[in-house]
Structures are given as structure tokens and as C-alpha cells.
Amino acid sequence: MITHYDIKMEMQKLKEVLSVEGVNIPSLLQVIKPGTYVFLWILLWPTFLRLVSVKSDVRDVGFDICASVMMGFLLFVAITNGMMLYLAIPDSFRKDSK
Fold it and tell me: Using CA atoms, how far apart are residues 59 and 57, in angstroms rounded to an integer?
């Protein structure tokens, strides 16, 4: 179980590691790759399902694609932001942390 004390100690260690080693700057491809996979899955799966369905209206297909693009883009931004923050922490701290 993680307690408040554990979090406080981890934050102190992180503060020390960041002051000594600094922040890592990950490559762009490493940061956006997971978000891109999720975005493409959210875009292509409903598009595929709508295009193979027997009864499909062009307007409905367009709405589904637009909704998928908006939702996929929001998830892409959130995942990319999370990966950027995670990969900015030095490897030594990530390996030694609880």
C-alpha cells in the first residue's frame, strides 16, 4: 500500500534527481507513437465497420468519421502529454521508484 509518507519521500528523491541530472527530452517519435496508434484505431475501426455494413447512409458515415476524429484527437493529445511527462523523468529514477 502506498502511503502519504511514501509519496512524500519519492517526491524528495525526484527533486534531488532532477536537480542533479536534469530533465530528459525524449524524441518526438517516442512520444507520439502510442497516441498515434490509439488515434488510428479509433478512426479506422468505426470507419471500417460503417463501410462494410449493408445499410449505410453517407451522412451517417460522415458523422461517425467526424466524431471518431474528434474523440481520437482528444485521446491523442492526452496520451502524448502523459508520455511526454513520463519520459521526461530520468531513467534511473523510474527504475528505482516504487
Answer: 5
Whether residue 38 contacts residue 67, with contact meaning beta carbons closer than 8 Å, is answered with no
What distances in angstroms separate CA 68 from CA 5, 18, 38, one per listed residue?
42, 39, 11
Contact between residue 93 and residue 13 where contact means Cβ atoms under 8 Å apart = yes
Within 8 A by CB and 6+ apart from 30, the residues are: 83, 87
pLDDT in tens, 18-68: 888 888 888 999 999 999 999 999 999 988 887 787 676 777 778 888 999
Q: Is 72 exposed, middle or buried (0-12, 13-18, 19+ CB in 10 A)?
A: buried
Residue 49: count other Cβ atoms within 10 Å of its Cβ: 11
Contact 6, 98 (CB under 8 A): yes
